Amino acid sequence: MSYSIGDVEKLTGIKSHILRYWEKEIPLLRPKKNNFGRRIFSSRDLRVVMRLKHLLYVRRFTIQGAREQLIHEMSEHQDIRACIDEIRSDLIDVYFTVHKAERTI
Questions:
Q1: Distance (Å, rounded) from C-alpha 96 to C-alpha 3?
Q2: Around Cβ 35, how many Cβ atoms within 10 Å?
Q3: Nearest Cα to 26, choosing from 58, 2, 59, 50?
Q4: Which of 4, 49, 51, 95 is the most exposed place for a label (fewest CB within 10 A)?
Q5: How many domains does the chain have?
Q6: How confident is the model at residue 28 (pLDDT cuts 50, 70, 90)?
Q7: Where are the alpha helices (H) located in the chain, listed in sequence order?
Q8: What is the Cβ-side half-sphere exposure of residue 8, based on CA atoms within 13 angstroms?
């Protein structure tokens, strides 16, 4: 599934200008751009944003420390992470499906 920067902002509470800054600073966060130049975040990008938010705001990492931690985490436990990431992705898809269904009711 893909998400606009507005969707990511609503899901995470992180303002779009901060997301754009993180995109410059964190090599693992690389949303694609569509034909109109708008950012399209993948489920993987969304997971990186959520983890980065936790590292910066809860664990109080610096941006450099969070970057290093993310790189370290991505290289470790790939099989377990893949399973967890797949479950997270499914949950996010369910959230958006329910959210869109509520709007139509």
A1: 10
A2: 5
A3: 50
A4: 95
A5: 1
A6: confident
A7: 5-12, 16-25, 43-53, 63-75, 78-104
A8: 32
| Predicted TM-score (pTM) above 0.85 | no
* CA-wise closest residue to 70 among 9, 37, 25, 32: 25
User: Beta-carbon neighbour count of residue 32 at 10 Å?
Assistant: 11
CATH of the domain at 67: 1.10.1660.10
- Domain span including residue 28: 2-104
CA atoms within 13 A on the CB side of 36: 4
Q: Within 13 Å, how many C-alpha atoms sit on residue 83's CB side?
A: 3
